[in-house]
Protein backbone atom coordinates (compact mmCIF):
# COMPACT_ATOMS: atom_id res chain seq x y z
CA UNK A 1 0.00 0.00 0.00
CA UNK A 2 2.83 2.40 0.80
CA UNK A 3 4.45 1.83 -2.59
CA UNK A 4 1.06 2.50 -4.16
CA UNK A 5 0.92 5.88 -2.40
CA UNK A 6 4.51 6.65 -3.42
CA UNK A 7 3.82 5.98 -7.08
CA UNK A 8 0.70 8.13 -7.05
CA UNK A 9 2.51 10.89 -5.19
CA UNK A 10 5.32 11.05 -7.69
CA UNK A 11 3.15 10.80 -10.79
CA UNK A 12 -0.04 12.64 -9.97
CA UNK A 13 0.69 14.75 -6.91
CA UNK A 14 -1.06 15.09 -3.59
CA UNK A 15 -4.39 16.07 -5.10
CA UNK A 16 -4.85 12.49 -6.28
CA UNK A 17 -3.40 11.09 -3.06
CA UNK A 18 -5.96 13.11 -1.14
CA UNK A 19 -8.82 11.52 -3.08
CA UNK A 20 -7.33 8.07 -2.60
CA UNK A 21 -6.84 8.71 1.12
CA UNK A 22 -10.56 9.28 1.46
CA UNK A 23 -11.06 5.83 -0.05
CA UNK A 24 -8.37 3.91 1.79
CA UNK A 25 -8.82 5.57 5.17
CA UNK A 26 -12.53 4.75 5.01
CA UNK A 27 -11.68 1.14 4.23
CA UNK A 28 -9.15 1.10 7.06
CA UNK A 29 -11.77 2.51 9.41
CA UNK A 30 -14.17 -0.25 8.40
CA UNK A 31 -11.48 -2.89 8.85
CA UNK A 32 -10.57 -1.48 12.27
CA UNK A 33 -14.18 -1.63 13.35
CA UNK A 34 -14.49 -5.18 12.02
CA UNK A 35 -16.99 -4.24 9.33
CA UNK A 36 -15.60 -6.06 6.31
CA UNK A 37 -16.67 -9.55 7.40
CA UNK A 38 -20.48 -9.88 7.57
CA UNK A 39 -20.47 -13.44 8.94
CA UNK A 40 -21.96 -12.56 12.31
CA UNK A 41 -24.58 -14.07 14.54
CA UNK A 42 -28.28 -13.41 14.10
CA UNK A 43 -28.38 -11.96 17.59
CA UNK A 44 -27.08 -8.62 16.31
CA UNK A 45 -30.56 -7.27 15.66
CA UNK A 46 -31.62 -8.03 19.21
CA UNK A 47 -28.41 -6.45 20.44
CA UNK A 48 -29.20 -3.38 18.34
CA UNK A 49 -32.68 -3.07 19.79
CA UNK A 50 -31.83 -3.76 23.44
CA UNK A 51 -28.40 -2.17 23.90
CA UNK A 52 -28.39 0.68 26.40
CA UNK A 53 -26.49 3.61 24.94
CA UNK A 54 -26.58 7.35 25.42
CA UNK A 55 -27.61 7.84 21.82
CA UNK A 56 -30.12 5.39 20.37
CA UNK A 57 -29.95 5.28 16.58
CA UNK A 58 -32.82 5.09 14.14
CA UNK A 59 -34.41 1.69 13.62
CA UNK A 60 -32.80 -0.68 11.16
CA UNK A 61 -35.79 -0.44 8.83
CA UNK A 62 -35.58 3.36 8.77
CA UNK A 63 -31.84 3.36 8.12
CA UNK A 64 -32.30 0.78 5.38
CA UNK A 65 -34.71 3.20 3.68
CA UNK A 66 -32.35 6.16 4.03
CA UNK A 67 -29.12 4.44 2.98
CA UNK A 68 -27.99 1.96 0.34
CA UNK A 69 -27.15 -0.72 2.89
CA UNK A 70 -29.13 -3.87 3.55
CA UNK A 71 -30.47 -4.59 7.00
CA UNK A 72 -27.80 -7.21 7.64
CA UNK A 73 -25.04 -4.85 6.56
CA UNK A 74 -26.41 -2.21 8.91
CA UNK A 75 -26.39 -4.73 11.74
CA UNK A 76 -22.70 -5.43 11.11
CA UNK A 77 -21.91 -1.73 10.89
CA UNK A 78 -23.69 -1.10 14.17
CA UNK A 79 -21.87 -3.91 15.98
CA UNK A 80 -18.49 -2.54 14.92
CA UNK A 81 -19.44 1.04 15.71
CA UNK A 82 -20.81 0.15 19.13
CA UNK A 83 -17.71 -1.87 20.03
CA UNK A 84 -15.53 1.19 19.58
CA UNK A 85 -18.10 3.79 20.63
CA UNK A 86 -20.26 2.29 23.42
CA UNK A 87 -22.05 5.59 24.03
CA UNK A 88 -23.42 5.56 20.50
CA UNK A 89 -21.49 8.65 19.40
CA UNK A 90 -17.83 9.51 18.85
CA UNK A 91 -16.36 12.95 19.56
CA UNK A 92 -13.45 14.46 17.67
CA UNK A 93 -10.78 13.50 20.20
CA UNK A 94 -11.86 9.86 20.12
CA UNK A 95 -12.05 9.93 16.35
CA UNK A 96 -8.48 11.25 16.19
CA UNK A 97 -7.31 8.54 18.58
CA UNK A 98 -8.86 5.82 16.41
CA UNK A 99 -7.55 7.39 13.22
CA UNK A 100 -4.00 7.80 14.56
CA UNK A 101 -3.70 4.01 14.64
CA UNK A 102 -3.96 3.94 10.84
CA UNK A 103 -0.93 6.23 10.36
CA UNK A 104 1.38 5.76 13.37
CA UNK A 105 4.39 6.98 11.38
CA UNK A 106 3.04 10.53 11.11
CA UNK A 107 0.74 13.12 12.67
CA UNK A 108 -2.77 12.43 11.39
CA UNK A 109 -4.59 14.78 13.78
CA UNK A 110 -5.31 17.57 11.30
CA UNK A 111 -6.45 15.27 8.49
CA UNK A 112 -8.60 13.39 11.02
CA UNK A 113 -10.10 16.75 12.03
CA UNK A 114 -11.07 17.48 8.43
CA UNK A 115 -12.50 13.97 7.98
CA UNK A 116 -14.45 14.26 11.24
CA UNK A 117 -15.94 17.55 10.04
CA UNK A 118 -17.12 15.82 6.87
CA UNK A 119 -18.88 13.07 8.86
CA UNK A 120 -20.31 15.51 11.44
CA UNK A 121 -23.01 16.80 9.13
CA UNK A 122 -25.08 18.23 12.01
CA UNK A 123 -22.08 20.23 13.27
CA UNK A 124 -22.77 19.28 16.87
CA UNK A 125 -19.26 18.07 17.68
CA UNK A 126 -20.06 14.36 17.52
CA UNK A 127 -20.59 11.64 14.95
CA UNK A 128 -23.52 9.34 15.61
CA UNK A 129 -24.13 5.95 14.05
CA UNK A 130 -26.53 7.62 11.63
CA UNK A 131 -23.88 10.15 10.59
CA UNK A 132 -21.43 7.32 10.12
CA UNK A 133 -23.63 5.14 7.92
CA UNK A 134 -24.96 8.07 5.89
CA UNK A 135 -21.38 9.02 5.03
CA UNK A 136 -20.35 5.45 4.29
CA UNK A 137 -23.44 4.94 2.16
CA UNK A 138 -22.29 7.78 -0.08
CA UNK A 139 -18.64 6.72 -0.10
CA UNK A 140 -19.28 3.02 -0.72
CA UNK A 141 -22.57 2.90 -2.59
CA UNK A 142 -23.08 6.35 -4.05
CA UNK A 143 -22.69 7.34 -7.68
CA UNK A 144 -19.41 8.83 -8.89
CA UNK A 145 -20.99 12.27 -8.53
CA UNK A 146 -22.12 11.45 -4.98
CA UNK A 147 -18.62 10.37 -4.00
CA UNK A 148 -16.92 13.35 -5.61
CA UNK A 149 -19.42 15.71 -3.97
CA UNK A 150 -18.50 14.16 -0.62
CA UNK A 151 -14.78 14.59 -1.31
CA UNK A 152 -15.36 18.19 -2.39
CA UNK A 153 -17.20 18.88 0.84
CA UNK A 154 -14.21 17.49 2.73
CA UNK A 155 -11.88 19.96 1.01
CA UNK A 156 -14.28 22.93 1.16
CA UNK A 157 -13.37 23.70 4.74
CA UNK A 158 -15.64 26.69 5.30
CA UNK A 159 -18.48 25.17 3.26
CA UNK A 160 -18.96 28.21 1.01
CA UNK A 161 -19.20 26.18 -2.19
CA UNK A 162 -15.66 26.58 -3.48
CA UNK A 163 -12.14 25.47 -2.63
CA UNK A 164 -9.55 28.21 -2.16
CA UNK A 165 -5.79 27.86 -2.31
CA UNK A 166 -5.64 28.47 1.43
CA UNK A 167 -8.05 25.61 2.10
CA UNK A 168 -6.21 23.27 -0.23
CA UNK A 169 -2.89 24.21 1.37
CA UNK A 170 -4.29 23.22 4.77
CA UNK A 171 -5.40 19.89 3.30
CA UNK A 172 -2.04 19.30 1.61
CA UNK A 173 -0.13 20.12 4.79
CA UNK A 174 -2.28 17.69 6.75
CA UNK A 175 -1.56 14.93 4.22
CA UNK A 176 2.14 15.80 4.27
CA UNK A 177 2.18 15.67 8.08
CA UNK A 178 0.40 12.32 8.03
CA UNK A 179 2.50 10.66 5.33
CA UNK A 180 5.01 12.87 3.60
CA UNK A 181 7.66 13.50 6.23
CA UNK A 182 8.09 9.78 6.85
CA UNK A 183 7.69 8.73 3.24
CA UNK A 184 9.96 11.49 1.92
CA UNK A 185 12.13 12.83 4.78
CA UNK A 186 14.07 15.11 2.43
CA UNK A 187 11.02 16.70 0.79
CA UNK A 188 11.25 20.50 0.83
CA UNK A 189 8.98 22.48 3.13
CA UNK A 190 7.37 24.29 0.19
CA UNK A 191 6.30 21.00 -1.41
CA UNK A 192 2.65 21.28 -0.20
CA UNK A 193 2.40 24.71 -1.85
CA UNK A 194 3.75 23.31 -5.10
CA UNK A 195 1.08 20.63 -5.03
CA UNK A 196 -1.60 23.25 -4.41
CA UNK A 197 -0.45 25.13 -7.52
CA UNK A 198 -0.57 21.87 -9.48
CA UNK A 199 -4.07 21.17 -8.15
CA UNK A 200 -5.34 24.58 -9.24
CA UNK A 201 -3.64 24.38 -12.61
CA UNK A 202 -5.55 21.17 -13.26
CA UNK A 203 -8.92 22.05 -11.72
CA UNK A 204 -9.38 25.85 -11.80
CA UNK A 205 -10.64 25.86 -15.35
CA UNK A 206 -11.60 29.54 -15.57
CA UNK A 207 -8.53 30.68 -13.59
CA UNK A 208 -10.51 32.75 -11.09
CA UNK A 209 -8.52 31.52 -8.09
CA UNK A 210 -11.14 29.11 -6.69
CA UNK A 211 -12.33 25.62 -7.63
CA UNK A 212 -16.10 25.14 -7.79
CA UNK A 213 -17.92 21.84 -7.38
CA UNK A 214 -18.56 21.74 -11.13
CA UNK A 215 -14.87 22.25 -11.95
CA UNK A 216 -13.84 19.69 -9.34
CA UNK A 217 -16.18 16.96 -10.59
CA UNK A 218 -15.40 17.57 -14.26
CA UNK A 219 -11.64 17.54 -13.66
CA UNK A 220 -11.79 14.43 -11.48
CA UNK A 221 -13.82 12.56 -14.06
CA UNK A 222 -11.09 13.24 -16.62
CA UNK A 223 -8.42 11.83 -14.29
CA UNK A 224 -8.00 8.09 -14.82
CA UNK A 225 -6.21 7.55 -11.49
CA UNK A 226 -8.95 9.27 -9.50
CA UNK A 227 -11.63 7.28 -11.28
CA UNK A 228 -9.75 4.06 -10.52
CA UNK A 229 -9.53 5.07 -6.86
CA UNK A 230 -13.29 5.55 -6.77
CA UNK A 231 -13.70 1.91 -7.85
CA UNK A 232 -11.84 0.72 -4.75
CA UNK A 233 -15.13 1.23 -2.92
CA UNK A 234 -17.08 -1.25 -5.00
CA UNK A 235 -18.16 -4.52 -3.41
CA UNK A 236 -16.48 -3.81 -0.07
CA UNK A 237 -19.29 -5.21 2.03
Written description of the protein model:
Residues 107-142, 143-178, 191-226 form the EF-hand domain. It is found in: Cell membrane. Keywords: Calcium, Cell membrane, Ion channel, Ion transport, Membrane, Metal-binding, Potassium, Potassium channel, Potassium transport, Repeat, Transport, Voltage-gated channel. GO terms for molecular function: calcium ion binding; potassium channel activity. Belongs to the recoverin family. The protein is mainly alpha-helical and 237 residues long. Among the domains are: 61-142, Recoverin, domain 1 (Orthogonal Bundle), CATH 1.10.238.10; 158-236, EF-hand (Recoverin, domain 1). It is built from 13 helices and four strands. The strands form two sheets. The protein has a two-stranded antiparallel sheet. Strands 3-4 form a two-stranded antiparallel ribbon. The longest helix is centred in the N-terminal third of the chain and has 19 residues, at 14-32. The relative contact order is 0.16.
Amino acid sequence: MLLFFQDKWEVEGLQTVGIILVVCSSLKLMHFLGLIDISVADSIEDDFELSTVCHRPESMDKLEELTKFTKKELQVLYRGFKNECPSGVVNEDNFKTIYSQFFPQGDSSMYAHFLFEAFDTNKNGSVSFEDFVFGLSIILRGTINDRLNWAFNLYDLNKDGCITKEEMLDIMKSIYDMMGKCTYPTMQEDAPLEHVESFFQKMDQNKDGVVTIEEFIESCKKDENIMQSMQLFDNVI
